[in-house]
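Re: beginner question about structure tokens

> Can someone show what the tokenized structure looks like for a real chain? I only ever see the sequence side.

Sure, here's an example I had lying around. Input first:
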Amino acid sequence: MLLLLLSACTAHQHQAYDGSPVAHTVHASLDTGYYHYSAPTPEPEFYALPFQQIPGYRVEGLRFDSSEKNGQPGNQVDARYFRSSTSGKKPLLIVLPIWATHTFPSTVIANGFASHSKGGANILWMQGDGPLFDWFELADIDDETAFNQAVETSADRFRAVAIDTRRLIDWAETRPEIDSSRIGIIGFSMSALVGANVAGNDPRIHTAVYVLGGARPGDMMAECNLVVEYMRKQVSDSLGWTQDEYRAFFRDKLRDGDPWRWRGRYRAENTLIIESSKDDCIPAASRAALYEATGKPERILYPYNHWQPFLSMTPVGRNVLSRDIYEFLERKLLGPEGDPPGVHRQRTTHSRGPIR
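And the corresponding structure tokens:
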């Protein structure tokens, strides 16, 4: 039965980018807005890692002090750097973590794409041991003023890790082994939301993959089940809030972290969205908003909940999701030029399994 479940989770539908004319009509700015920063280009400390090297790479850790309060250990930015050992400039893929939650998706993609590309790309895998939103800590707060302050701190951490990512790009631009005209980013769930905010505010992002993410974070907070639902129930009981009051509170507090605000700033032709039609954390309106905001890009749809598609990143699930991500990155990021803005592809739809 487990084998049947895992095999079933490979069913999905693949839609190509339709060449929407609304894509990439407004260029993101490096100089203004909520994600502006004035910190200098970091000079990371490199350190050895106690695990086996990957063929085609030199793998080491790097870290530097965050310019914000990012909620991570020592207030540092920590990353695993897979530096290609082949000659010449190579693209860079930034892999974002799901902070203090699941390490599986980012581990699979960082290591898997390194093996897949055989040194054809440099990879920066950001670490995320500290939470951006500590759901259980928030759930225990029974005072509205204290809850307001705690949520503002969480929103500041969200902004901080986006700025940390942009500063990693500043550093990447100084590296002789990195082709800074081809920088990709991939995020999962919460980090898909972070990645979309980075791409919407930094034109140096050439290629982006958002896995099980969305826009309109206030709606996510109001409708997500999982541990977010536990927090919502506890807080609503303590503060006497209705769901609409709860939704309005988070819409206000997280408005600057909404990718919908940056619509028209994305390279839709170089974007892939992977989502679940029965996602029980990211509501349909949030998924649709991300798809619209990013210019209706290439999209893969799974007919499952928020966590089941990750099963197709396992060998029993035939690594279908991972292979689709690698194929997209190879086509867009590793190709001679990727698909530059203005090159439109006809929409096609094909299915790799039943959609119910």
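Each token stands for a local structural state, so reading them left to right follows the chain. The mean pLDDT is 89.
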